[in-house]
Write a sequence for this structure.
């Protein structure tokens, strides 16, 4: 069922939701609905009103406006009116543009369903083709890894002081050609690091190059590794795992608390939504990624701070956090993690164990229980910590961006002074950055917002 | 020589890498090349260093953040003031000041955000600091924000 919370969740960002809320009734020349869809005509800057529609089965949307966001503000506005002013919606016959769009959607769904229903001959042919592609890919990666290893050896033989960003960039391009996208991405991040000129950036570059070298060593002896290790190495080299393969594995049924959700616009056509969940019984973290394109704007209807009964299937690998959702009850449960006495040292010990098992893991989620805020004067500045009385966890070294840091600290400080706090955070091992995700204080859940809107600027 | 120096100079210039006993004990017995040895030592050394540094032990240098409010807290800012209208906020702050009250954490969060993050100079919290009470002053201190009184016009 469409609710305001769900619409907020579907919106690509806060600005779009706000803009959609601002499309008052006089802007709408038509508001209509039937069992299949909501549609309307909304006047905009052009001479003709925009044709807006939302399919009610999966909240897919379309609009004739030029926006590259989806759903655009008009689709959001239409959905909001359906919730707030249902009596303003008429039930006329569907216009042709809407019929065509809905039919196309159905056609696409049928096509993907029929893909699953192939004849044995077709299946065999497809399987052979897939095997051929996989082999070619493997060969390409094998050659790419060899080349990467030899390049890294030349690099360390000549000394890192001689390395230029052009060299790194050209190696990144070679990795793209060899179909090893994650390594190309890593090299591009290393190039960025070399521009920052931070105190420890040289060390970080060396460490990250060392990990790439370790990856090449692991790939050379991949056949001797156990299945989880093999899956991890393959993942780091960009081998894709089919959704069906993941969903065929045994899942973990639990009550999953959505602790943080953020959207990142990769380009004009792709937005990645990241959801971090925490299992109340399994005490496991789960990372769900959603890729939103113009064709696929379906989002999971979950709200941050709410708990859902669900079955998550984890991707194979070493302590892999990434999941696919097999089953999700969208009815939220009011439940938070039970109070538990786990010292900070124990939490950190468990995280270190994970890092020891998987040297390629960069992000480690942490859950510190019953901490209190503390401060210490460091070089004339008051810096903030969380403590369990025996150990202290620094809150001051997360995020180099000052305004973001202030905003996050402010939120935590105003509510947390003198109170016990359960804190979710992510530790990035590469740069020792800490990203705060959420905290629970006085039995209430608070997501740490990344940035506040600059409304007066 | 520190590990980073070896890496910067390059293995063509060196014949062996000195490592601590701890690392020497866990290094695999054989290496094909000094390049492999240097990368392997880097992994071991930096992993140990990085993973060891996150938590610190509690000591007297730390102080727990405690604030004793000395005046009555205002619990609800009221919808009419939840706006981006600077004039309305000022009026509200004046009222709070006259009644010698301080703001609840939620409202303080809201007001500090509006002032701190939405003004062009984010390092200086200029206006109305008196009405924030002890909680606001403590927060400003912990955020290393300089408090200065509002200039009289």
């Amino acid at each position: 069922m469409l609710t305001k919370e769900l619409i907020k969740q579907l919106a690509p960002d806060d600005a779009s939701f706000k803009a959609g809320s601002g499309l008052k009734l006089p802007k709408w020349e038509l508001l209509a609905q039937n069992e299949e869809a909501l549609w309307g005509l909304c006047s905009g800057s052009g001479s003709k009103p925009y044709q807006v529609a939302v399919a009610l089965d999966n909240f897919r949307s379309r609009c004739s406006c030029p926006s590259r966001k989806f759903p655009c503000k008009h689709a959001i506005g239409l959905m909001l009116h359906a919730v707030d002013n249902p009596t303003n919606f008429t039930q006329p016959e569907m216009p042709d543009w809407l019929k065509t769009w809905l039919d196309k959607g159905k056609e696409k769904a049928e096509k993907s369903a029929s893909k699953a229903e192939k004849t044995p001959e077709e299946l065999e042919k497809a399987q052979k083709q897939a095997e051929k592609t996989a082999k070619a890919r493997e060969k390409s990666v094998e050659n790419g890894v060899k080349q990467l290893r030899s390049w890294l050896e030349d690099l360390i033989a000549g000394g890192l002081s001689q390395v230029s960003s052009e060299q790194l960039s050209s190696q990144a391009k070679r990795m793209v050609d060899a179909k090893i996208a994650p390594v190309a991405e890593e090299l591009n991040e290393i190039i960025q690091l070399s521009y920052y000129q931070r105190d420890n950036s040289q060390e970080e570059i060396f460490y990250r190059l060392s990990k790439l070298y370790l990856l090449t060593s692991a790939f050379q002896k991949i056949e001797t590794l156990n299945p989880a290790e093999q899956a991890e190495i393959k993942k780091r080299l960009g081998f894709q795992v089919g959704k069906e393969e993941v969903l065929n594995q045994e899942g973990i049924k639990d009550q999953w608390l959505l602790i943080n959700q953020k959207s990142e616009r990769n380009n004009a056509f792709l937005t990645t939504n990241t959801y971090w969940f925490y299992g109340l019984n399994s005490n496991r973290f789960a990372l769900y990624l959603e890729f939103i394109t113009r064709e696929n704007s379906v989002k999971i209807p979950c709200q941050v701070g709410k708990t859902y009964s669900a079955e998550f299937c984890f991707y194979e690998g070493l302590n892999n956090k990434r999941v696919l959702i097999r089953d999700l009850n969208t009815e939220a449960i009011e439940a938070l993690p039970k109070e538990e006495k786990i010292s900070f040292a124990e939490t950190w010990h468990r995280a270190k164990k994970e890092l020891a098992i998987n040297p390629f893991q960069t992000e480690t989620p942490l859950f510190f229980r019953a901490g209190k805020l503390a401060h210490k004067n460091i070089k004339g500045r008051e810096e903030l910590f969380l403590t369990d009385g025996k150990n202290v966890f620094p809150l001051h070294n997360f995020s180099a961006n000052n305004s973001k840091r202030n905003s996050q600290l402010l939120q935590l400080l105003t509510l947390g002074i003198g109170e016990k706090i359960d804190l979710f955070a992510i530790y990035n091992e590469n740069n020792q950055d800490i990203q705060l995700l959420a905290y629970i204080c006085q039995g209430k859940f608070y997501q740490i917002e990344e940035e506040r809107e600059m409304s007066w600027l | 020589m520190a590990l980073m120096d070896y890496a910067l100079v390059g293995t063509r210039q060196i014949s062996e890498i000195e490592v601590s006993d701890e690392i020497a004990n866990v290094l695999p017995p054989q290496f094909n090349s000094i390049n492999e040895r240097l990368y392997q030592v880097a992994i071991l050394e930096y992993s140990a260093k990085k993973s060891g540094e996150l938590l610190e032990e509690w000591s007297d240098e730390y102080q727990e953040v405690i604030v004793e409010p000395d005046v009555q807290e205002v619990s609800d800012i009221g919808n009419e003031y939840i706006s981006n209208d600077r004039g309305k906020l000022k009026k509200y702050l004046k009222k709070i000041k006259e009644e010698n009250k301080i703001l609840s954490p939620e409202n303080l969060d809201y007001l500090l955000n509006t002032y701190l993050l939405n003004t062009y100079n984010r390092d200086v919290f200029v206006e109305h600091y008196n009405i924030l009470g002890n909680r606001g002053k403590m927060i400003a201190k912990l955020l290393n924000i300089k408090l200065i009184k509002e200039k009289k016009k």
About this structure: Chain B touches chain A through 57 residues (CB under 8 Å). Chain B has a mean pLDDT of 73.
